[in-house]
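U., I forgot to send this yesterday:
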Amino acid sequence: MLFKRRTREPLGERLRTMVWPRRSFHRSWAYLVKRALRLSATPHAVATGVAAGVFASFTPFMGFHIIMAAAIAWILRGNLVAATLGTFMGNPLTFPFIWGATLGLGKFILRGEHPAGVGPDDIGHLLWHLEFEKLWEPLLKPMAIGSLPLGVAAALIVYVITRGSANAVREERRRRLAERARRRATGNAGAMAS
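Result:
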């Protein structure tokens, strides 16, 4: 098969690369940014898609981020691939900060109208026994409410940055292509004159 390893990687190495990239997080992040900016859609569609993905990453509904991002991007006429790439804003490095911020803001918005907190042992027990209805009031409801303003703010910031960057990348590409065409035209004109 094309591009397949001759020897299979050990299981431990495959698991490690799922969590920690081979090169670096910076290189992986740079790849995702360039991939999003080079999509063949309008800068508005790309920026809307990425913003939808970032917004979805702020919600506490793990496992549904890509579906939510795609639905939001489709409604707002954003790019679906960009929406998927935008969900990478939520990753193992950023989730603790996102979850802490959404939980804190959600508790502030609810002004103490939620039951007492749930400890880590309780969360593990409730997740193990799939008792999500008992997690809703103390944990998921404040996180869901707190994720709305934070997610919208992050999505707006990312939209502005992505749209500006996509416009700059396209303008630079147009300039390079025009320069290449100009050099080709002057080279052909010089060859015809001689």
